[in-house]
Design goal:
Chain A: Keywords: ATP-binding, Nucleotide-binding, Transport. Chain A: This is Amino acid/amide ABC transporter ATP-binding protein 1 (HAAT family). The complex is a heterotrimer of chains A (about 250), B (about 400) and C (about 350). Chain A is about 40% helix and about 25% strand. Chain A has about 250 residues and is an alpha/beta fold. Chain B is built from 17 helices and six strands. The relative contact order of chain B is 0.16. The interface between B and C is large, with 42 and 39 residues.
Chain lengths: ~250, ~400, ~350
């Protein structure tokens, strides 16, 4: 069953048709990669999914509900979490606090004041955040200033923060861009583990073919703002059209 | 203690100690001695210390936590003062209803102004708050004269109704603000040899409120709400993609800090029952920014220290004149004495603003964490000097 | 109709001052990315350049005039400016009379020097700091500058007149075919407007037609790329800061006859100029100029008797009201670019 259904989406920036006639169907509990050469419209598509951009035409349905016209935080509350290309974390806060915020957001939904309680007295939140740090192997960095961590650790924390929201769909925007090989492999392992252990769908935009073919069980190739082909990794590897449009270019 | 961690409780105790013993602490020099002009222990000034302390604590809840720099906070101070004076005119000279109305009114205005201004962030937010405050100042000065008293300010009169009190005292005077019979202006002098210490009802009333305000600020800083505010300052994008809308949090912070400002304004009117539009002028908003930055934005005790320091400078440095300078440097040879006096002179007396501006610039350039960061650096340096070998790699702790 | 023209004219001089200050603010913001709260102080320093020059050239020494006597019957002592001794009385008097326009020559090098020192000595270190820090440090600088001026010149406004030739008013209405005495306009305000138009034109021409200006404009659009081309953009930006300071200073010099300068005039204008910049659109030079004149004229319309009777107090708040409405409906101002200062 498809959890995310994109139909006929088009988006134009001035004279540039960034997306046209995009169809995408992400199946529940799959790892779906969206690949394509630079300027193919991958990031624009992603921004249309999370509410940062509103497509000119078409529909985006998540779990049977339209996400169009909703703001990013509302879409997030529907169950879509996003990991950014450069890790977006709360740099001025400690690692533990970083992890507690999504736990609060998950529990309280919308705005709740809590202006008088001590934040450490919220037992359920503290326990959940601690458990998630444990899962991410970051328990020892609990009190660290988040901005002072390595890029790999920031990425790990960001993914952990997204998981703490218990999303149904996790969107990743080039999660290994600019990472050293070792960090990249760690991230692949982490994502594999997440996809195996959790009831979660992953959609990933990626440049690195190594990452794509180690993770994905479904791939959509985007070229010039429109999907070229959607298939499983084996067929994509052998598809001459894809080679021409993308892999050929990559060498 | 009171649900606080040890470090915060210590901080609270320090503030309690400082405020309760202020009449002693601020009067260290015997009356009539050459140094007596550095004494700040007179009621009027002590009241201003704590009132501006409250104002700055509130401003810090907005600026220090969320990073939204409001340049129009004095408007709420003014609204608080006007509301309080109206309560004195219409209801009674009891300060409690006056202060409550001050907080409610400033809270309502903050809700309205915040709702509109918070649609924008960064410099646009600063300009919007500035524009609102300047507008209110201009209106209070001109067309709203029936409500605000215009240029002369809002004052009490003998024919005010004061339905729960008396329009006039038995002697035919305007009554003074008080708390269930205790008049705010009453003082008690304690003379110990040549020292004179003054204990003023109004001051202690304000000081108790400051302690409560400070305690509440600690609770807010340590609460999930405070954490959300810091998260807003740190990364709004991530907060949005965590399913949270920052707007209600910033608005709540704006209203809370507006109410602190209203409280300060109400107290100001309770100490001296008049209110003028100049309290809302943008330089007054700039002043509370200076206090907060100088002390240390985002720290708990910083704004209180900053407010104290600026008000002390305003009142004490501005009173030094060239005669006093000459008497200090009289031990030097004449030429050198004149020379030094000539150098120091621009920075004292009416020139205290220059000193303030220079100190403020130095703080922003070298000590972005304000006096609190300065204190922490000195403490660290002392510690290092003591233990010789220090453990490397200790990450810096967030300021309290 | 004549009333409308009169109000437009009345708005022009204030509008000119707003436009010139806002132009400098925008230049600095657009090129250096710095929010300069000390820009009003530069306007004020310019005004005091005029005051200083008029004092310098009026330096006098006492001479005993044998032909006249004072009330005690002694020969009268009169102060004779040194300048009379050097250039003769007629030329000397003319120089003193024309001290304000002459101050332009005096102010340009001073203002450029002040601007360059400010940028190299202080602002440079704040490029990478948050905007809030920039606002705060320049706010501190503004306090320091105005206090220094206050120390040397006192707190009272210092009247410094325009040249005799430009004192008084003329009947503008009669010139353009209205009834006499309907549109009376002071000469100096017209001079001020034309001067402002000249400066604004010069700045735009400079940016448009010189290589230097082209690089600066490119730098405003995309600083990193220009840096990558190997062009020393920092040095050019320093010069730009000097020019912006000079523009603000000249606006101050020529404003002196309209309003006697005092030490806080910079701050008074700064607050309004920031509003102007934001209304025009942060980072847009034409926007700054347009908004400057627009708000100046609006302010003057709002001061009309009929308008005040209709909406009391509107003249006091019109600028802020317009700013709030524009910021909320057109978040980027009248002509602002996308994404400037939005985080």
């Amino acid at each position: 069953m498809a959890i995310l259904e994109v139909k006929d989406v088009g988006k134009r920036f001035g004279g540039l048709q960034a997306l046209s006639d995009v169809q995408l169907s992400v199946k529940e509990n799959s790892v779906h990669a969206i690949i394509g050469p630079n300027g193919a419209g991958k990031s624009t598509l992603l921004n249309c999914l999370v509410g940062k951009l509103i497509p000119d035409t078409g529909s985006v349905m998540f779990d049977g509900q339209s996400v169009l016209g909703r703001s990013p935080h509302e879409i997030n509350q529907m169950g879509i979490s996003r990991v950014f290309q450069t890790p977006e974390i709360f740099g001025d806060l400690s690692v533990m606090e970083n992890m507690m915020i999504p736990c609060f957001a998950r529990r309280d939904g919308a705005f709740r004041m809590h202006a008088i309680e001590d934040m450490m007295s919220e037992k359920d939140i503290v326990e959940k955040a601690e458990a998630m740090l444990e899962d991410m192997n970051m328990a020892d960095k609990r009190e660290m200033h988040a901005a002072s961590m390595s890029r790999g650790d920031k990425r790990r924390l960001e993914i952990g923060m997204c998981l703490a929201q218990e999303p149904r769909l996790l969107l990743l925007d080039e999660p290994t861009a600019g990472m050293a090989r070792a960090d990249t492999n760690n991230t692949i392992d982490l994502l594999k583990q997440i996809s195996d252990e959790r009831d979660i769908t992953i959609a990933i935009i990626e440049h690195d073919m190594h990452v794509v073919f180690s993770l994905a069980n479904r791939i959509t190739v985007l070229a010039q703002g429109t999907p070229l082909v959607e298939d499983n990794p084996e067929n994509i590897r052998g598809n001459p059209k894809v080679r021409e449009a993308y892999l050929g270019e990559a060498g | 203690m009171l649900g606080l961690k040890k470090k915060d409780a210590t901080l609270l105790l320090i503030v309690i100690g400082l405020t309760m013993f202020a009449p002693f602490i601020l009067n260290p020099f015997p009356d009539g001695s050459a140094m007596a002009q550095f004494n700040a222990g007179y009621p009027d000034l002590m009241q201003r210390f704590v009132i501006f302390g409250i104002f700055a604590i509130g401003f810090n809840i907005l600026f220090g936590l969320t990073g939204y720099l409001s340049f129009g906070h004095a408007a709420f101070l003014g609204i608080g003062s006007y509301s309080a004076v109206w309560m004195f005119k219409l209801l009674s000279m009891n300060v409690i209803p006056a202060i409550l109305l001050a907080m409610v009114m400033s809270g309502l205005f903050a809700l309205l102004i915040g709702f509109i201004s918070l649609r924008r962030s960064g410099i646009y937010f600063s300009i919007l708050t500035l524009a609102f405050a300047q507008m209110m100042f201009a209106l209070a000065y001109s067309v709203l004269t029936p409500i605000t008293g215009g240029e002369t300010g809002l004052q009490l009169a003998l024919d005010d109704p004061r339905v729960l009190g008396a329009s006039q005292t038995a002697g035919g005077n305007i009554p003074v603000p008080g708390l269930f019979g205790m008049e705010m202006r009453n003082s008690f002098d304690l003379a110990i040899s040549s020292w004179v210490f003054t204990f003023n009802v109004g001051y202690y009333f304000c000081a108790l409120i400051l302690i409560a305000a400070f305690y509440l600020a600690i609770r807010i800083f340590r609460s999930p709400f405070g954490m959300m505010l810091r998260a807003i300052k740190s990364n709004q994008t991530r907060l949005n993609y965590t399913g949270l809308n920052p707007r209600p949090y910033t608005l709540a912070a704006f209203v809370i800090s507006g109410m602190y400002a209203g409280l300060a304004g109400g107290l100001m009117a309770s100490m001296d029952p008049l209110a003028g539009a100049e309290r809302m002028f943008w330089t007054a908003s700039g002043e509370v920014v200076l206090m907060t930055i100088l002390g240390g934005a985002g720290t708990l005790i910083g704004p209180v220290l900053g407010a104290g320091m600026i008000k002390y400078m305003e009142n004490i440095i501005s009173k030094i004149n060239s005669d006093i300078l000459h008497s200090w440097f009289a031990f030097l040879p004449d030429g050198l004495e004149d020379f030094i006096v000539a150098i120091v002179y621009p920075f004292i007396g009416k020139g205290w603003h220059l000193t303030l501006g220079i100190i403020f610039m130095l703080v922003v350039i070298f000590l972005p964490g304000g006096l609190v960061e300065g204190g922490q650096r000195i403490a660290k340096w002392l510690k290092r000097g003591k233990t010789e070998d220090t453990k490397p790699g200790k990450s810096t702790e967030p300021a309290e | 109709m004549d009333a409308i023209i009169l109000q437009i004219l009345n708005g022009l001089d204030k509008g000119s001052a707003y436009a010139l200050i806002a132009l400098g603010l925008t230049l600095i913001f657009g090129t250096l990315g710095v929010v300069n709260f000390a820009h009003g102080a530069l306007f004020m320093i310019g005004a005091f350049c005029a005051v200083t020059l008029s004092r310098i050239i009026s330096f006098s020494h006492e001479v005993i005039d044998e032909t006249r006597t004072d009330f005690l019957g002694n020969p009268l002592k009169v102060d004779v400016p040194y300048i009379y001794d050097w250039f003769g009385e007629a030329t000397g008097a003319a120089i003193i009379d024309w001290s304000v326009p002459l101050s332009i020559l005096f102010a340009i090098p001073i203002m450029i020097a002040v601007g360059v020192i400010m940028e190299r000595g202080l602002i440079k270190h704040f490029y990478k700091r948050p905007h809030a820090d920039q606002i705060l440090v320049t706010f501190g600088l503004a306090i320091v500058l105005q206090e220094i001026i206050k120390y040397y010149y006192g707190a009272n406004p210092i009247p410094t007149p325009a040249p005799e030739a430009f004192k008084g008013s003329f009947d503008f209405g009669a010139m353009i075919g209205f009834a006499e005495n309907t549109i009376i306009y002071p000469y100096w305000r017209l001079v001020y407007f034309m001067f402002a138009a000249l400066i604004i034109g010069a700045v735009f021409a400079f940016l448009q037609f010189t290589t230097f200006g082209m690089v600066v404009r490119a730098g405003m659009a995309d600083r990193e790329t220009v840096g990558l081309l190997g062009i020393n953009i920092d040095k050019r930006f320093t010069i730009m800061f000097g020019i912006a300071a000079a523009v603000a200073g000249l606006a101050g010099v020529m404003y002196v006859p309209i309003n006697p300068p005092n030490y806080h005039m910079g701050m008074d204008f700064l607050v309004l100029s920031f509003v102007v910049v934001v209304v025009g659109g942060m980072g847009s030079l034409p926007g700054a100029v347009l908004a400057g004149f627009l708000l100046g004229i609006l302010e003057s319309f709002a001061s009309m008797r009929q308008v005040i009777d209709l909406i009391p107090g509107i003249n006091q708040i019109i600028i802020y009201l317009v700013a709030i409405i524009i910021l909320l409906t057109r978040p980027r101002g009248l002509m602002g670019r996308k994404g400037v200062m939005e985080d």
